[in-house]
Structures are given as C-alpha cells and as structure tokens.
Amino acid sequence: MAVYFDNAATTPLDEQVIEAMLPYMRNNYGNPSSTHTHGRQVRSAIEKARKKVAELLNTSPAEIFFTSGGTEADNMALCCMVDTYGIENIITSKIEHHAVLHTVKHIEKAGRAQVHFVDTDKDNGNVSLQHLEHLLKTHPNAMVSLMHGNNEIGNLTDIGHVAELCVAYGAKFHSDTVQTMGHYRHDLQKLSVDCLVGSAHKFHGPKGVGFLYVNHATSIQPLIYGGAQERNMRGGTENVYGIIGLAKALEVAYTGMESHKAHIMALKQRMMEHLTAAIPTIGFNGTSGHLDQSLYTVLNLCMPDTDDNDMLLFNLDIQGISASGGSACSSGSSIGSHVLNELDRSEGRGSIRISFSKYNTEEEVDYVCQKLAELYPVENA
Ligand SMILES: Cc1ncc(COP(=O)(O)O)c(C=O)c1O
C-alpha cells in the first residue's frame, strides 16, 4: 500500500485543475504581452484568473500579483515593504517558515532593518500577543510578519487580533498564509492586513506559482525588475498555465471547503484516537493535538523512545508511507527543525508530521496507525 501523508509539503493536483490547465499547454500558447489575437486570448485568461482569486478573497483584482510561489511572495512583501516604507523594525517569530526567517535575517545583515522576535510558548509554540504588543509599543516604524498556520506544528495565530494591534500602533502587517490559503476563508474586507500570501501547490494546484495580495492603500516597489508584467510589479513572462491552475484550484478549494474540512478533521481525530490507544505514551507537538485550535490538516506526532528520527521515517517509507519529520524544507539538515527546537521537549523523542488532504481515507489512516503500532509495541512504549 502506498499512502501519502505529506500534504503540508505539497498536494496532488486536482483533476479539474489539470483539465483547466491543458488548453493553455496544448493550444493557447500566445505570450500574454503580445497584442495579437494569440496573446490577447491568454492575457484575458490571466485577468479572469486574477478576478477569480480576488472574488474568492473578497478583494479587488488590482491587489493580486502572481509570483513563482510562496517564497517569492514572502520575499517581495518583506524586502519591498522595508525598502518602500523605510521600515526600521521587523517583528516576527522564530517559528516562521524559512521563506520569512532567512529573508528577514538577510535584511538585517544588510543593515536595512532590525529584527525582533515575539516570544512563543515553550509548551505549545503559541505566539504571545502580549509580548507582540510590548514590542509594538517600544519599536516605532515597524512591520510585523506572523504566519497564520504553522506548517510543522499546526499552530494557528489569531491574525485578526494581530491586525488590530498593528493598526493601533501604526505598524505594517504581512502574514504568511501559505498553509491556510484554500483551507480557511480569508475575507480581505474584514482583515486589516497589508500583504498576504498564497501558494497553489498547497491546495491541489500546480507547483511554482503563487500570489501576493497587497492592500490598495499600500503601494510597494517591485522585487523583480524587467518587463511590464503584473502591472510593472514583477518582470518576466507569466507562468500562464500555473496561474490558470492556481485560480481553478482556489475555486475548487472554496467550493468544497466545508466538506473537505469535516472529512479531514474526522480522519485526524481517528488517527489521534487510534494512536493514543495503541501507543499510550505518544504525544502531539504544538497545538496540533487540539482539534479545535490547530490547522486541521496537520498532526505532529511526538514519538516515545526514538533515538533516530530518520530511521523512523525510513521505516515508514519502507511500508509505503510518505510523511515528514518536521518541515520538508529542513529534511536532510542535521540541526533538526527550528520550530521544534523552540519547544521544550523531553530527550529521546522523535517527531513525525502527518499532513492530510481531502484525498486521504480512513483505510489509509488505519494502515499508518497499524504500522506505527508495530514499530512501537506496547511493552516498549
Ligand atoms: C508556511 C510556508 N510559507 C512559505 C512556503 C514556501 O512556499 P513555496 O513552496 O510556494 O515557495 C511554505 C512551503 O512549504 C510554507 O509552508
């Protein structure tokens, strides 16, 4: 049996997305910047895609810029906000994705702004909003960058509350929403955020395409210079089929969101119950074990008596189970997950990130539970 439980790393394409993209691979190959018929047809499809994304997020198409993915969109938001607004202080957390952490470190190293980290709870990884307020009070001319859903431990931050604090203290606000886009509804008429990010491959769209939302009241300089694409905000011929696929994937995600959520939450609950019964000393990292408080797609298992996490994942892989030991981006790194390192954890514990999608089944959950139970017989658990 081959089962895929690494959907926070990437998701399989939805068949409807493939169907939507195919005509732009086979027939509609014009360059959207060309003024002839072939070009105009493709330009019109891109603008329809932009309109669709904007409609779903309850905002206007002029605020959506297509990028090569979440990493580029995060880079664009952070670097360009700092440069455009002369931001002096960046307030973020140590559990952000490297797309944010490495970018802010680079900005600081270049002497463009200072970075300050909001405290996170050592038990569950939650960001302290009291400390955020303190940092905002004491650091004027600031920009806050806090993610909505954590890709490793599933923590959800109340970005509505963060946005209110940013408004109160006159700070700019960027949120990495890569893990919640397509899984939660974002209403940009209600959320006071300057920049927000999406990446298609996290919601059954193609890889290598994403978008940055920039609020109409916020006007930033480009990150990539070149042609006049994306209204002079991102040079380079557009990833046409990627953009078509992204819009279709977001539409499909919004249409089925409530039923997908119910299906996935039931699977997550089933896995938690079965694993707790089979391996009583198992734990769940971050808030991922609290169904109502965490990203419903992520369950981070804290495994007892595990000296070699790579071997554990390897053993699962041999059984046909694809999961990850933290973030996909940190696999192969000997220093382990920078997110788990922020939590107080007992020695000798392993970590397996199980991340679900609408395509997972009860049978697959039962298979993983059975294989893990075999690796952790009760007398050793
Ligand atoms: C929270 C978060 N931000 C950013 C990214 C980067 O997105 P992309 O793979 O589209 O560059 C990821 C991908 O793992 C992510 O999980």
Short description:
This protein has a seven-stranded mixed β-sheet, with helices on both faces. A three-stranded antiparallel β-sheet has the order 9-10-12. It has a two-stranded parallel ribbon with strand order 1-11. The chain is an alpha/beta fold. The protein has eleven helices and twelve strands.
Structure explained in plain terms:
The chain is built from 11 helices and 12 strands. The strands form 3 sheets. Strands 2-8-7-6-5-3-4 form a 7-stranded mixed sheet, with helices on both faces. It has a 3-stranded antiparallel sheet with strand order 9-10-12. Helix 2 packs parallel to helix 8, helix 3 runs parallel beside helix 4 and helix 5 packs parallel to helix 6 (159-168). The longest helix has 22 residues, at 257-278. The two termini are 25 Å apart. It is globular and about 70 Å long. By secondary structure, the chain is an alpha/beta fold. The model is unreliable at 327-334 (pLDDT under 50). Bound molecules: pyridoxal-5'-phosphate. The site of pyridoxal-5'-phosphate has 14 residues, from helix 3.
